[in-house]
Amino acid sequence: xxxxxxxxxxxxxxxxxxxxxxxxxxxxxxxxxxxxxxxxxxxxxxxxxxxxxxxxxxxxxxxxxxxxxxxxxxxxxxxxxxxxxxxxxxxxxxxxxxxxxxxxxxxxxxxx
Amino acid sequence: xxxxxxxxxxxxxxxxxxxxxxxxxxxxxxxxxxxxxxxxxxxxxxxxxxxxxxxxxxxxxxxxxxxxxxxxxxxxxxxxxxxxxxxxxxxxxxxxxxxxxxxxxxxxxxxxx
Lengths: 112, 113
Known about the structure:
Radius of gyration of chain A: 14 Å
Low-confidence stretches of chain A: none
Number of strands of chain B: 11
Order of helices and strands of chain B: EEEEEEEEEEE
Largest interface: A-B, 24 and 27 residues
Shape of chain B: globular
Number of strands of chain A: 10
Distance between the termini of chain B: 36 Å
Strand content of chain B: over 45%
Strand content of chain A: over 45%
Largest sheet of chain B: 7 strands, mixed
Shape of chain A: globular
Oligomer: heterodimer
Distance between the termini of chain A: 39 Å
Number of helices of chain B: 0
Mean pLDDT of chain B: 92
Largest sheet of chain A: 6 strands, mixed
């Protein structure tokens, strides 16, 4: 199983850039790294996914170093509405979900 | 387009009672998943169905059964509920393959007394 480790919580302020790092030392060759966002009383929502180097979309960037043993989710210019729990997910298999492992999540709190 | 719909949203059971949680998706996805979420534990996979007609155990399957009724529906059954099964249950679906982004429902909050 590809275990992941994330900080339990982080604080920041509106307008700042926030970086959340996930460690996944046992990542396998075919594993992708996926990040989700979860608000209270809702299911997780897909943010971004990557395999190596850098991926960017309209809401976030994902940085993955060459050894792929960690990844960093970057949220540019956060707002109060970015307060949520962020999960790092690592895992792949040839046809099933065996080894699908969510991290425990990072509770991000954005202050005015 | 509703996405993933879970019913009921809330339920209270007594120990030993049985219960089926329902999940339906309207995205024509092949794979479906059931997770439970407990404080401080993140999401843990209970069962999954890679395609219609197949089901497999995840990380924490004990005390649960599942049925992939058709391509749209994937139900989770507690035959004899226990207080340790008090949790929030989430259903998710993907087009197919675990690297595909998962689409989640809004959960069923289950309390067992």
